[in-house]
């Protein structure tokens, strides 16, 4: 009885976790009087950091050098890399900012 209850709780938690996926966008507040202080932020994702030999106690990377989305922006496949099939969170995040 307890096993069934725990299994049910896990399934409910997994379903809720899938539905809570949200994207955060960072926007700079725009002030019309201070146009010289505008900053443009560009985020790109570099090489894959996923450890493929973790289960055997080792350390090995697949060699993927840059994240390339599998499908178009706004779809679920946009978070999966076309080269290594890893989620975008495994790739190193590089934030570049420039003054405009």
For this entry, give a set of tags:
100 residues, alpha+beta, flat
Largest sheet: 2 strands, antiparallel
Average pLDDT confidence is 76
In what order do the strands lie side by side in the largest sheet? Answer: 1-2
DSSP strand count: 2
Query: Topology as H/E string?
Result: HEE
- List unreliable stretches of 5+ residues: 15-25
By DSSP (H or I, 4+ residues per run), the number of helices equals 1
Shape: flat
Please state the structural category.
Answer: alpha+beta
Structure in words:
With 100 residues, the protein is of the alpha+beta class. Helices cover 18% and strands 19% of the residues. It has 1 helix and 2 strands; from the N terminus they run αββ. It has one helix at residues 2-19; strands spanning 39-48, 91-99. It has a two-stranded antiparallel ribbon with strand order 1-2. The longest helix is centred in the first third of the chain and has 18 residues, at 2-19. It is flat and about 50 Å long. Residues 15-25 have low confidence and may be disordered.
């Amino acid at each position: 009885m307890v096993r069934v209850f725990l299994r049910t709780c896990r399934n409910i938690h997994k379903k809720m976790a899938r539905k809570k996926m949200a994207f955060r966008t960072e926007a700079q507040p725009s002030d019309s009087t201070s146009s010289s202080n505008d900053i443009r932020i560009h985020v790109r994702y570099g090489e894959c950091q996923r450890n493929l030999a973790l289960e055997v106690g080792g350390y090995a990377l697949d060699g993927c050098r840059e994240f390339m989305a599998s499908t178009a922006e706004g779809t679920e496949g946009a978070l999966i890399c076309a080269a290594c099939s890893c989620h975008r969170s495994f790739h190193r995040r590089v934030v570049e900012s420039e003054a405009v």
